[in-house]
């Protein structure tokens, strides 16, 4: 046999050995991937199990109720997402006495973060209200007073106009500028009686312009409404412009 033949044989054998080695390595990699997948699935199962709540267990029931209370308070001030695992770590650290941050530092950080969030949300709400009222003022039939109060006469009454010392009976529906209803005497089926000066500035001004029997749609800028404090436990956000359907039924004796 010539030299070329042996070279061919050697090449074929080398290729076969190389393919066998690659196949072995591939099988090893596949086995490792399967093991990794099984490990990941186990962790996912454990995570899912950790989310399951047994409200018949007193400790879990208390823990869940406590979490709901914290979550609702945070949601009310504007947080819509948190690092939930970090909260769990912090709670466990406190229980074990292994805190990674001093209590005073933590309180200062939380206070600063909440204040910053409230300022940002307040600025956003204020800008939304200004933009809404600016566009609304352009509509036909909208009247704007010197204070910035806007109103639209739906029905013009023929009765007397209240003064600051009067009590009045009204029906109303209060809305945010997106149309969300936050309060309504109409829905309750019972009008409300109050002193003209016992309500927000926007109402005080509007009532002293309305003849009895009138129905108006009143648009109130935040500075004539609830301003930075908001109202209704978060139902009316801070710095929110408001819209009211108001029907002045009577001046009470």
Q: Would you tell me which CATH topology of the domain at 132-252 applies?
A: Chitinase A, domain 3
Helix segment count? 6
The portion of residues forming beta strands comes to 15-25%
Q: Write down the CATH class of the domain at 132-252.
A: Alpha Beta
The description of the largest β-sheet is:
7 strands, antiparallel
Tell me the total number of β-strands.
Answer: 7
Please give the radius of gyration in angstroms. 34 Å
> Mean pLDDT, rounded to whole units?
85
Unreliable parts: none
Structure overview:
This protein is elongated. It has helices at 3-51, 58-77, 84-96, 103-136, 185-188, 201-207, and strands at 142-144, 150-155, 167-176, 181-184, 192-195, 215-220, 242-252. With 253 residues, the protein is an alpha+beta fold. Among the domains are: 3-52; 132-252, Chitinase A, domain 3 (Roll), CATH 3.10.50.40. Strands 1, 2, 3, 4, 5, 6 and 7 form a seven-stranded antiparallel β-sheet that branches. The mean pLDDT is 85.
Quick synopsis:
50% of the residues lie in helices and 17% in strands.
Helices and strands, with pairings:
Elements: H1 3-51, H2 58-77, H3 84-96, H4 103-136, E1 142-144, E2 150-155, E3 167-176, E4 181-184, H5 185-188, E5 192-195, H6 201-207, E6 215-220, E7 242-252
Antiparallel strand pairs: 1-2, 2-6, 3-4, 3-5, 3-7, 6-7
Any descriptors?
alpha+beta, 253 residues, Chitinase A, domain 3, seven-stranded antiparallel sheet
């Amino acid at each position: 046999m010539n030299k070329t033949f042996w070279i061919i044989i050697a090449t074929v054998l080398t290729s076969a050995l190389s393919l066998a080695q690659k196949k072995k390595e591939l099988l090893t990699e596949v086995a490792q991937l399967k093991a990794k997948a099984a490990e990941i699935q186990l962790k996912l199962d454990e995570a899912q199990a950790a989310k399951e709540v047994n409200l018949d267990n007193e400790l879990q029931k208390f823990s869940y109720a406590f979490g709901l209370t914290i979550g609702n308070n945070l949601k009310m001030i504007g947080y819509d997402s948190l690092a939930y695992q970090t909260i769990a770590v912090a709670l466990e650290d406190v229980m074990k006495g292994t805190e990674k941050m001093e209590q005073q530092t933590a309180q200062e950080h939380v206070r600063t973060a909440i204040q910053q969030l409230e300022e940002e949300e307040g600025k956003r709400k204020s800008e939304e209200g200004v933009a809404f009222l600016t566009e609304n003022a352009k509509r036909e039939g909208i009247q704007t007073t010197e204070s910035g109060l806007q109103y639209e006469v739906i029905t013009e009454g023929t009765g007397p106009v209240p003064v600051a010392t009067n009590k009045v009976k009204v029906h109303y529906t209060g809305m945010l500028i997106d149309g969300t209803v936050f309060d309504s005497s109409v829905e309750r089926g019972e009008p409300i009686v109050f002193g003209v000066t016992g309500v927000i500035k926007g109402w005080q001004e509007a009532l002293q312009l309305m003849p009895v029997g009138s129905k108006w749609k009143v648009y109130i800028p935040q500075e004539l409404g609830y301003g930075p404090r908001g109202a209704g436990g978060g139902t009316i956000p801070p710095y929110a412009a408001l819209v009211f359907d108001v029907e002045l039924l009577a001046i009470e004796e």
